[in-house]
């Protein structure tokens, strides 16, 4: 596998390609990392995907590169800003991909782990050129996730006024894939989640997949793998089934 770093405007990308024939057109996957990490953290999964014949682009999320990295405390505090801005930057990656590799292409594949899975869900709602998407222990129920992670904060000194929180929630709803399932538009979605995840709650993922399965429009388009006894870590099963999903026609 060939690995190189590329700066695109103000974001860093790690680009992973097969050793041979890397100039030829290839399906390309943009894959996002979790909070506190960098694109290179996803190299083990990228290796598997490259071995399967894909080009993989690993972006550093906003405020996560060495040049703009915030403390973990600050990253957590600005979490919803980070996922929003990072999802917006995908449009620049897509245009750069067209200009550099595939002028006639009309789609990308996208995936992510944890925070990266949440960014993936936002991107699916916003960008119709995403053909297939994979979420590993992320959530598409962004509004519910906001309430989940702020529940304990509200018992103490909550940093937002009621008006500020209302404005934030109004914006979060515009990013929330689960608020408008029609934006999926019959695209294939892979979801993996450990059942004892104590960071991103499994029950939100299960609710979302059940909502999709109850709609006749999305039957056959949702590939859901739940793993008993697994917490907030990507297992071998998760990586293998994610690769199989992207490889499937």
From TrEMBL:
Residues 92-235 form the Peptidase S9 prolyl oligopeptidase catalytic domain. One of its GO terms (molecular function) is carboxylic ester hydrolase activity. Gene3D superfamilies: alpha/beta hydrolase. The keyword Hydrolase applies. Keywords: Hydrolase. The keyword Lyase does not apply. This is Peptidase S9 prolyl oligopeptidase catalytic domain-containing protein. It comes from Halolactibacillus alkaliphilus.
């Amino acid at each position: 596998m060939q690995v190189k770093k590329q700066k695109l405007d103000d974001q860093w990308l790690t680009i992973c390609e097969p050793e041979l024939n890397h100039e030829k057109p290839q399906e390309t996957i943009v894959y996002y990392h979790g909070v506190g990490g960098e694109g290179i953290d996803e190299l083990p999964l990228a290796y598997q995907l490259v071995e399967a014949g894909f080009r993989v682009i690993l972006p550093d999320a906003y405020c996560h590169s060495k040049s703009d990295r915030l403390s973990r405390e600050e990253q957590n505090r600005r979490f919803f800003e980070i996922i929003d801005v990072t999802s917006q930057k995908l449009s620049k990656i897509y245009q750069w991909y067209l200009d550099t590799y595939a002028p006639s292409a009309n789609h990308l594949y996208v995936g992510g782990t944890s925070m990266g899975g949440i960014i993936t869900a936002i991107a699916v709602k916003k960008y119709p050129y995403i053909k297939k998407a994979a979420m590993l222990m992320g959530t598409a129920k962004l509004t519910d996730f906001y309430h989940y992670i702020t529940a304990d904060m509200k018992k103490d000194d909550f940093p937002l006024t009621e008006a500020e929180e209302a404005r934030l929630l109004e914006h979060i709803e515009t990013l929330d894939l689960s608020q408008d399932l029609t934006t999926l538009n019959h695209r294939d979605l892979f979801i993996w989640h450990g059942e004892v995840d104590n960071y991103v709650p499994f029950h939100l993922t299960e609710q979302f997949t059940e909502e999709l399965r109850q709609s006749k429009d999305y039957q056959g388009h949702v590939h859901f793998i739940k793993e008993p006894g697994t917490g907030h870590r990507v297992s071998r099963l998760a990586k293998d089934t994610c690769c199989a999903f992207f490889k499937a026609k």
